[in-house]
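Same chain as my last thread, 466 residues:
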Amino acid sequence: MVNLQSKENNSNILNSLLYFLIFTTLFFSVFQAFSFVDIHIGHASKGVSPYWMSIILTFTAFILTFKSNLRKELSFIFKNSEKNFRYALIFLSLFCLYSALSAFVFSIFFKGVYIMSPTKGIDLQYHDPSSLKFSLSNIGQAGYMILNFIFLSIIIVISRRNSSFFDSLTKVLFYTGIFVVIFGLFEYISVYFYSNTTYLWLYKVFHNNYTYSFYPYNSKRIFSTLSEPSFCGGFLASYLMFLMTRYLFNAKKIYLFAIPFAFFTLLATQSTTAYFSFFVSLILLFFVFTFFEKNYKTFAAIIFVLLLGFSFFIVSGKARSAKISNQIEQTTVKKVNSGSFKHRLWADYFSYTVVLPKTYFLGAGLGSNRPSSFLAYLASNLGIPGLFLFFSFLYFLAMMFKKNLTLLRHNHQKAGLLYAVSLSFIVYLFAMFAALPDINWPPFLWIYMSLIFSGFISLKNNKENI
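reply #2:
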């Protein structure tokens, strides 16, 4: 009797620890330029993000918790899940397997092919590309992808056992985004209005990973806890989509209150990627409003607070004697004519016309070539097979929605949450296609995919309980 009680207590402790680690991992996903330890390899130094360490700890706790029936849990998901869910998961698994193998095989097999080296940057390699060779970048990207897939799998398994887990995950996402917004606003105030040592200290903590920290603490473009304004803007655009959709479906004032501050921070990034992604989010919002949730009052409220956020930004610009129209023109219209923009277009063109055909359309291997666009990244690193597997995954993801439209219409609360994370995923994917090539870090693509799978499991569990 005592042994049984002891085992039950240990199991409860492990479960609590596992949940804590999962939520902590989600929170750590926004600390792109933060390192808790540096690894020195030869003359090179590589910072390790707490996100990756948190996944390793989560996986350890997961194995200890499910060691007796892990095989049964995974088998159940593949055998008993809805067809489109199962195929989406299979194609994503194959995509990860192919990607990880390509990092070790193609980077060696196609040695000497000209590529845009991830370590040198695009501007330095404009019309002067590097030669392909197997490197730490290949090992790192393969490892990151495996860890991201492990984390996604853990979320799927736990979501099947706990019907309220999806709701908890979205709450963590909400507060994580709030943290990014608050620190971004603090950064804006500190840079433009009130220079203080607190911000300088926090900057040094959050941006101590020199592999990813590119911008100085007094940069006029806001990037919060991310490595640069484009990544921050891409995340904020997807987060705004989450906030707007959540409010459209359930009209909770906390989401409405957060929208103008998130929009202000997005504008402060002065990122073309941010502005483009936000425009995509507005189109998607209007689409959802027209076809799924025609609530004029909530929609009008969203538009009002967006205008309020924009007004705050205009007023703050006047307070610091800056013309906002000139700033926006500088980061949009004039940027198209800049050398940096031309270099990035050339890197994408080079990836399609040189790297892809020179590797016989198989790709140079994950982590080998780093252009400007995610599509060019996929094509040049993973070739036609990688593109096929990834877009097959997206196809079955879309079919999951089509198959469950009736169920979504009858489950308003779950539908609102699921639409919110799914539309955030789409917005971030557009941001990646525009100018965020990295598939693994920051890991928002994986976070949103994990939440979508979790949401559909929660929807199915809820249906079975009705």
